[in-house]
Amino acid sequence: MISLFRPGRGLIAPFTTLAAAVLTATVAAAQNLDAGKSPAKLFADGCATCHRTPRGLAKGRFSLTLTWFLKDHYATSSDSAKALAAYLESVDEPPPRAAAKPGAKPPRSSPRPPKAVQSQ
Fold first, then answer.
1. Residue 65 has pLDDT above 80, yes or no
2. Smallest Cα–Cα separation from 46: which of 98, 87, 103?
3. What value does the mean pLDDT take over residues 74-99?
4. DSSP string, the chain
């Protein structure tokens, strides 16, 4: 008579098969969670908790070093790090000059010489 429960090798094979199946499923389920998100959405999801606005975060930084920093610390891929770095640089540019408001004083100009006196 053959016993279904054999101590030793009989228990190793099912556990090995189960472990291999779990590892394969885990690797297959890994995905890039940042794929398809706009840079503004990446900032909102990952950075806005600590940084209220993206303005000023790229100030004085080189694009390449900013990309490396984001890749090492915050982004899940090189592509999302590049996109986020480009976004931070684009919002860091100075805002365009606003049009003058009606009724506002014109900017001071340099003084002009006095008019010549006309004789009659």
1. yes
2. 87
3. 81
4. ---S--SSHHHHHHHHHHHHHHHHHHHHH---TTTT--HHHHHHHHTTTT-S-STTTTTT--HHHHHHHHHHHT-SSHHHHHHHHHHHHHHTSPPPPPPPPTTPPPPPPPPPPPPPPPP-
